[in-house]
Protein 1
Amino acid sequence: MAPPTTSKPVRLLVALGVVIVGLAVWAFWPGTSSSVRLGLDLQGGTQVILKPTPISEGAEITDEQLSQTVSIIRQRVDGLGVAEAEVTTQGSGGGAVIVVSVPGVNQDRVVDLVQRTALLDFRPVWGISGAAPLTATPAPEPGATDAASPGASPSASPSASASAPASTAASAAASPEASGSGTPAPLVQAAENSPEFQEQLAALDCTDPLNFTGGRPDDPEKWLGTCDVTGTAKYNLEPAFIKGTNVTNANAVLPQGGMGWVVSLEFDSEGARALADASTKLTGLPECGTPGGNPCNAFAIVLDGVVTSAPRFNEPILGGQAQIEGDFTAQEARDLANVLKYGALPVTLEPVDVTTVSPTVGNDQLRAGIIAGLLGLLLVGVYLLLYYRMLGLVAVLSLVIAGGILYLAFVVLSKTIGLTLTLAGVAGAIVAIGITADSFIVYFERIRDEIRDGKSLRQACDSGWVRARRTLLAADFVSILAAAVLYFLSVGSVRGFAFVLGLTTLIDILVAFWFTHPLTVLIGRTAWMQRGSKMTGLDKSRLGVDHSAQSSGGRGRGRTRQSSKEVSA
Amino acid sequence: MSRLGSLGHRLYAGEVSYDFVGRSKRWYIISAVIVLIAIAAVLIRGLNFGIEFRGGADFSLSNATCTVEQARDVAEEATGAQSIVTQTASGTVRVQTETLTPERSSEVAGLLAEACGIPKDEVRVQVVGPTWGQEISSKALQGLLIFILLVTIFLSIYFEWRMAIGALVALAHDLIITVGIYALVGLEVTPATVIGLLTILGYSLYDTVVVFDKVKENTRGVTGQSVLTYAEAANLAVNQTLVRSINTSVVALLPVVAIIIVGAGLLGAGTLLDLAVVLAIGMAAGTYSSIFIATPVLVDLKNRQPEIKALQARVLARRKAGRTEASPRGAGEGDDADGDDESTGDGTTSGSPSTRVPGGPRQQPRRQARSRRR
């Protein structure tokens, strides 16, 4: 067995103090959110669990498709302008589901929004202007990037290349996080490029995140006025000439000859024909962004209502294979390829569980959970105090400390990994009161056993701990194992519960090792505890200790003084 | 309270001893009957699965002013199918129908809200597709199996495989009884119930591990002496941890009772209440089984080992010869002089005096060295 851990109880208490202060500073650091994020069942809102199924029979959903789906849904949900909306996946492969949680929004809208299939289409660009509404005129970025490669594709295949503006790479002018104000303006669409349409487009504010986060699938048959995905430019787009479903493949490749990453594209026969027509027509047009350049030589890749990228044609593309060039990094090229490949989402999303909780009900549940927790804590505290007296007080303090650490941990985890506290989690925490208190009971019973064996109180605090510690670790290991297995294998509310169970078990171990045990040892060194009055919970008559033990207790006191001097020195 | 305290002492010293192990047949029969009733209940009555498992729509209207009949009329007219309407003590009306599309469910929620005089936003709506519940359950079942496999490996390494079996028998006992009571009473099985069952799983094993740890300690080197049989040493361990088991159960049940009180009083049916009910049943069964089932099963398994059999024969022969001696408790504790921090604990070889089991250096030399340290 390891050497006794009790020689420096003060050190352990100080260490725990440091941990708590550290957590508190982290939790309440100015400028960050210092509250526990509540799940929808506690604050009200709508949760939709979506099960993706491949459109084609028997196909498997790849992780790439899944993450693409999630990012599209996330963009749409962000577009709702609700703070703290969440889109997560649970599970993987065939069993994966997507969980969308939106606080405080009526279910109809959320379900409608997330369930809709994202549309990908290719539209000729009629004109490009600055992002801001009406007057502001920053130089339109997309037109400036024709430096890429005039003769970049010397391949014998008729695949021509288009140079892409690196708009996917451009840094966002504003954070894509929803500002929480208002709803996105209706999509600017019209059957013709009419003056009204142009007026509406001029009024469109592409610096507002609501307008460039997508979620409003466009009608491919109509003209579209929209923003690019980073909110840095505004596009006037003609009706689509190719739909996303015409794209058969897209890959990020690094061609030999080293022009940097490019995205290669393949189309089906219909897409290839349309591409040949459009490219032939567009190559003759002036550069976009130049004066009078309407319509101009570029086509926009529009995903879910916003422009992902707008390359220009270098030459007519006749073979159904194209290549998009630009100053891509490997990641940007892969992202664009994914958009092109999965943009039209080869999955259907079926809402398998839709739950709406009104904020009132959510608050009631939270309040009931808190009341139940406090009542449980009170009952357990009274019982422990009655039974263990002074030691019971140590146990109650330990429970309070454990509760405090749990709260701080929730706050810290809320801001670091986005933990949300659900009702199942609250239940887990309440249940954990009993299991945490059990650790103290096991220890105290061991101390009593040791005293019955004739040990002095001080010895008993040490040797009882060595035995209790082993039991605790074994028993808590089983709990943690259960929590970990459940967390990784389950979905829905079971997961939240398992997380809290695991967290509380870890805190239980921390508190038992760094608080309960050292504090018990310190208290055990006091003369009052040594005398063993009724209030200590260790009085000799109750424990039935005989005289020989008391004499050894007397010697134990002598040694205690010495070692407390050592500690304070 | 103080009576329980001194009972603790007498249990520890072996002055008072309940024969948990020796009367194992009795406990087995009691448990077998309960388990059979539970299984029969599940087979005959079946479980009342909530809409999360069957699929369907659930509308919860708190502070509703309508009657159950009114709500049912509205719901059945709107959906054209039968619906289940219940009202809880706190005035919440709950309407359950078959699965609806999200749009339809929104309509029905609006109609119900109108009929019951509350704003539509106050209606809690849940719509679950029919396959979703199966998926949750199969995931939970998969997790359960993997957990049991891992915990068996852990217990076999930390204790021994016989203890793993004992713990698993106790676990199965607890789970079957809990599920059986659900079937008997007709309580609704919700995801919270599944969570509760999984907690019982952890709790039951946790409880058993604490008892087994004491058994392991008491029976260390048990074959090196001839005073106590394995069964007696194990029984003593159960008695010695009895006070702890009682205290732990009380302390674990108190918060659960608090949830039931608060849940029933303030909320009506809900996740918390569902969870608390299943926990209350399971924890009670868990405490019972760690005392009355796990250890007796372990002893039965151990008694098949040749050396344990030999021990039993030796002890009984020795008793027959009238040489049973009650060595005085606490002997040798006075010379406990070297209690410095390096070697806390007594320096005598009697690892745990109350068990009166001298260490067995021939069988377990390493163990001996460890127990000296305490």
Note: Chain A touches chain B through 107 residues (CB under 8 Å).
Protein 2
Amino acid sequence: MLTPAQRRIRASEPVKSFMLQPRRQVGSFPETTAVEEPGPRVLLGIKNCDLVPLKVHDTILGEGEFKDPFYLAQRKSTLLVAADCPEPEKSCFCNLLGLTPYAQDGADATLTIVDGDWLFEIGDSGQQLVDAAPELFTPVQEGSPELDKRARQRAAAVAALNVTNPRPWNSDLSGAVAAKRGDDSFWSRHAEKCVECFGCLMGCPTCYCFLLYDQAKEKSLGRTRVWDACYLAAYARVGGGANPRAEFVKRFANRFVCKFSDFKTDHGMYACSGCGRCFKACMGKIDIRKVLAEL
Amino acid sequence: MNNPYQAIPATILETHDETPNIRTFVLKPEQEIPFLAGQFVELTVPGFGEAPFTPSSSQFKRDTFDMTIMKVGRATGALFDLKPGDVVGARGPFGTPYPLDKFRGKDIYIVGGGVGLAPLRALFLALTHEIDKYQRIFLRYGARTPNDIVYRHLLPEWQKLPKVDVDLSVDVSDEKWMKKVGVVTCLMDDIPCDEKTSIAVVCGPPIMMKFVNQKLLDAGFQGENIYLSMETNMSCGVGQCRHCRLGPYLTCKDGPVLTWAQIKDIENPFV
């Protein structure tokens, strides 16, 4: 069996599951819920399309006046070892988002498999892994053939992506999506193929919307946080029953506006890393690349 | 680190029935919740759920706070079954308060509808607490029937305050009603303040806000001077979960009060 580091592309399950679990207790009443520190762990073989979304989550959950202590505890206890994608598949499109099929920053270490050897580049906090088992590592000198081979391997992966996805999107993608915000006829061409299974949102490494709900226990209640999906009809519905996005086409458009316009405007980054999970999961075969290419 | 999802206990000290389906709860939280007028608190009804409400009492007295709540759904239904002495959960304050510094020296024209007077009461009490800082305060309030008027016992007292002018309307009157009959905009035909500089503050059902806002714009009020309480679905209250997204804003963080200038380009903001 291949280790995650050896796989050609990202795993099916997004890495976000390790930090922002699909379901967890985040509060209780009247007693309080403690934030436990999980033991140290290493996630090995993270591809760049799973690494970049962590920046989105760090921004939303880890910065500002209110921080998520559960997320931060998971994050703090985890070392991230990234791995290159030597052979991107047809569903990969990180190049269209200005990303690369290998990690550039945000990892504690980066692995590249070169001729069966593992080339290990130390990043943010990766030195401790080397210190823990120095006998496993041999230093690589600047200008060594391994580094040269890595550079060529990476360039080949980028070239392959450019063959799969040759045509760049609108150079002002954020503005182009925003301009279509209320244009139902544009979005409905694609939205009508959706069966509302939400596989695209659950599998998305970036989507982080969640819902808090309370469950009665014997003499207390537990507050649970679950992943939520903006495609759900009840997502934006208010207490009195009014719903700003009652029609599905509005919810469909909202996903694109959120990922490619609002997020870019608010945080300077897209809430998409080009992993391709959304349309690999899609029963209606809605390819996000084709939707955006029409802008 | 603080857990923003964790509520603290708050004891119900008293309840007052305002109307057949609106009740004021006086709550004493275990620790003071340092709210300012316009900010909201997430209230937990143990075992039933959580919902956001804006305190309706003064920000200058915070050992207890009032919540005036209409019974509409599951959580509020369960809340109405609770009695003084029972304990609920509270977390907050969240959101952006009314920018009172921008209101200084100006006439404030407040328009409320139904239970929408609740958050406006917190504003009204904050303004009248330091009345010298402001010009005059106009309160225009509409309810469905005389029986649906909240703070019925307080409104005559407010009318007696210096620099304050109160006027009321009901959609459907009874034989004892002596004031205007009609939706609240019927009180707005003659707005007695300078529309170019005055501040308008509106809270009520979305359809009421839509028409009041239009009437204010027609009268010449500036979009950046019209403050509207926007209703969206909120879950986390702290700008993370994204449910309350309204155009480019998160109402739980940027709002819940937004100006017309902020929201005018949003498709159908009053849903």
Note: Residues 83 and 111 of chain A are 5 Å apart (CA to CA).
